[in-house]
């Protein structure tokens, strides 16, 4: 219950992002990088249908470490980028998270530390394999002392005459934690030469993903699937990489294959459900979310999704009860804000604009950085001919979420309407950069260019 799973817990903090000295190609070829914005290439729903993250990828159906943020280009973006659905502040350093996770399991001792690591003779313990493994687990996971763990692993590997795959994996984990990815890669490959293990394939894939080599990571996972056919964790890892690379069709295929092996895999069900929802099949998405409910998943996000599916599937009797349940289960202000935002959408759908206005206002009362709510409030203000309020709201929305095309496009339309053609042109160009295939933006730009040509 207290073990920290190294395979899943992987988040790049601001320190890791800004102090990363590993050089990668600045302009990678399309489809070969996880860090390049992928907004220009769309497979499946466009940003007009499915919202995107700052890195230009569609939102996933399941919050995982690193999925929503991508890799921000600047420190300012890093601070603004939502890390998960819960908070807009990224962790300062991933190592801090490891310490918190590890120490949560150890009772604090008033007499001092459980083991005084500075006094241990590591070379002595390295000669006793079983004791050395126990000590390594304690040092690495509970004390988060990577330096001592690395020293012990190196001594134990040497003592085992470099033939023990387990110690090589531990060395790789230490190098990975220290940011030495090439050394970690060598250790994991060496471990695989001795013994095929699912974990080792997963670690290697993680190393390649961090080095921004998703295609190499995929080939490594495929090798793992050749040795361990239909292994659930490997299928899930492949699906995640496809999803991050915007290959939503391939990702869904792998999630479906995963469900054939493990029909209670929450991540796969949630991702397939969200994919059906955004491909205009809310009834099928509803079946997947109901399956999660049957399995015992009982949280705000699930009822929020159920409410939206019921609305788009025109099952109006269930909408309000689902959203009421979501509000009662919300654990923080951000979750409450998301529920009110979706209720605002329902109100717009049934034509009650006063209720929609109140809902979006409640969204901002709970989460002052909700860019979509600012955008939608601006549209409602435009309908009332409150031009200045609408402009201010759209500027706020565009500043909070420069990766969204809607506030830029709405600002361009509003500026064009009141005769501020220069502002309209600048905003339309930003909209085009965020969503190149948006037809109405192209039409507006063409109209403005013709007007400027006539001048």
TrEMBL record:
<feature type="repeat" description="TPR">
    <location>
        <begin position="300"/>
        <end position="333"/>
    </location>
</feature>
<feature type="repeat" description="TPR">
    <location>
        <begin position="337"/>
        <end position="370"/>
    </location>
</feature>
<keyword id="KW-0802">TPR repeat</keyword>
<dbReference type="GO" id="GO:0034464">
    <property type="term" value="C:BBSome"/>
</dbReference>
<protein>
    <recommendedName>
        <fullName>Tetratricopeptide repeat domain 8</fullName>
    </recommendedName>
</protein>
<dbReference type="InterPro" id="IPR028796">
    <property type="entry name" value="BBS8"/>
</dbReference>
<dbReference type="InterPro" id="IPR011990">
    <property type="entry name" value="TPR-like_helical_dom_sf"/>
</dbReference>
<dbReference type="Pfam" id="PF13181">
    <property type="entry name" value="TPR_8"/>
</dbReference>
<feature type="repeat" description="TPR">
    <location>
        <begin position="198"/>
        <end position="231"/>
    </location>
</feature>
<dbReference type="GO" id="GO:1905515">
    <property type="term" value="P:non-motile cilium assembly"/>
</dbReference>
<dbReference type="InterPro" id="IPR019734">
    <property type="entry name" value="TPR_rpt"/>
</dbReference>
<dbReference type="GO" id="GO:0036064">
    <property type="term" value="C:ciliary basal body"/>
</dbReference>
<dbReference type="GO" id="GO:0097730">
    <property type="term" value="C:non-motile cilium"/>
</dbReference>
<dbReference type="Pfam" id="PF13432">
    <property type="entry name" value="TPR_16"/>
</dbReference>
<feature type="region of interest" description="Disordered">
    <location>
        <begin position="29"/>
        <end position="85"/>
    </location>
</feature>
